[in-house]
Amino acid sequence: MVNEARHDFSDRVAVVTGGAQGIGLAVAKRLLAGGARVAIWDMDAPEMARAAAALGAGEHLLTRLCDQSTWDDVQAAAMATEAAFGRIDILVNNAGIAGPAAPVASYDLAAWRQVIDIDLTGVFHCCRAVVPGMIARNFGRIANVSSVAGKEGNPNAAAYSAAKAGVLALTKSLGKELAGYDIAVNALTPSPAKTRILEQLTPEQVAYMLGKVPRGRFVAVEEAASMIAFMVSDENSFTTGATFDLSGGRTTY
Ligand SMILES: NC(=O)c1ccc[n+]([C@@H]2O[C@H](COP(=O)([O-])OP(=O)(O)OC[C@H]3O[C@@H](n4cnc5c(N)ncnc54)[C@H](O)[C@@H]3O)[C@@H](O)[C@H]2O)c1
Fold first, then answer.
1. Are 20 and 42 in contact (CB under 8 A)?
2. For labelling alongside 43, which of 116, 126, 244, 253 has CA 20 to 30 A away?
3. Are 98 and 201 in contact (CB under 8 A)?
4. Which residue's alpha carbon is nearest to atom 17 within ligand 1?
5. 91 alpha carbon – ligand 1 mean position (Å)
6. CATH code where residue 29 lies
7. CA-CA distance, 17 to 162, in Å (whole number)?
8. E strands present in 52-113
9. How many distinct structural domains can be found in the chain?
10. How much is the mean pLDDT over the chain?
11. Quick check: 187 and 144 in contact, CB under 8 A?
């Protein structure tokens, strides 16, 4: 079973985007249990308030309303976090949306742009905002939550699949750019987890994705948090620009 305090984050400041619920909330809980101070950046104010109450972390937790598709929002969130906690050591780029379920030939143009703006450009914005400080201090850990869809491409989810594939390429580029520093940039490719994002999909899509998982079940959010905790720990001092698989056997690369 998952040992919540296995990694020591006691001197670390972490940002978890989309941490108001789902995988991000499990990550925030895990990092707080390891002693980190955590800033949640999310655009859902009521869920963020609920998360803050549930986490009960007091001065160790900052919540910040932020739409990561907007550079100004992200820059302001980074400044507010640094003002409160002094610096940002860890960035977990987790926020995302699925977008509508539709084939490419009839995919809504505005929806395509929104998915790319949030799921890909938003990750770029967050990296751009925190990397200069990480370079200045020669320390950083970045985990970008992609998806198995970014490796495989799911039908009727081209915008999401393309954005998540973009996150994998962004991770590889940034990992190489920063490899001379004690900064690790890695991506995670989970298979389906039972969170609110699945409500954006059709039952047929969920059944299709789950049917491709050899483990035959949803990945638990705690299992995702466990892998991310290692990815952003001091112990992950060598692997960078890589993809950590969390697909229950679906992808073997
Ligand atoms: N649940 C799955 O099946 C699954 C599988 C693979 C990958 N993922 C990825 O995991 C990540 C977390 O998803 P989840 O399953 O916990 O979903 P979720 O819907 O429970 O949580 C996503 C969070 O992101 C926030 N968010 C959305 N748009 C935002 C924006 N523009 N700016 C800031 N915050 C925003 C939402 O408010 C929400 O709190 C996503 O990147 C998702 O694509 C999920």
1. yes
2. 244
3. yes
4. 197
5. 15
6. 3.40.50.720
7. 20
8. 61-65, 90-93
9. 1
10. 96
11. yes
Domain annotation covers residue 248: no
Residue 253 domain flag: no
Domain, as residue range, for 210: 13-243
Compute the distance between CA of residue 227 and CA of residue 33 in angstroms, rounded to an integer.
Answer: 15
Ligand 1 near 248 CB (within 6 A)? no
Segment 41-75, tens digit of pLDDT: 999 999 999 999 999 989 999 999 999 999 999 99
Mean pLDDT of 204-209: 91
Q: Tell me the CA distances in angstroms from 71 to 18, 34, 62, 121, 179, one per residue in order.
A: 16, 30, 20, 9, 25
Residue 162 is predicted with a pLDDT of: 98
Residue 251 placed within a domain? no
Query: CA-CA distance, 190 to 150, in Å (whole number)?
Result: 10
Q: Is residue 222's pLDDT more than 70?
A: yes
Residue ID of nearest Cα to ligand 1 atom 38:
18
φ/ψ bin of 42: left (φ > 0), alpha (ψ from -120 to 50), beta (otherwise): beta
Return the amino acid letter for 125: H
Q: What is the pTM of this model?
A: 0.97
The per-residue pLDDT for 148 is: 97
Retrieve residue 83's tokens.
């003002």
Confirm whether 252 is domain-assigned. no
Active-site annotation holds for 160? yes
Is pLDDT at 231 greater than 90 in this prediction? yes
Q: Does an H or E element contain 242, and which?
A: strand 242-246
- State the average pLDDT over residues 112-134: 98
Ligand 1 centroid, distance to 21 Cα (angstroms): 8
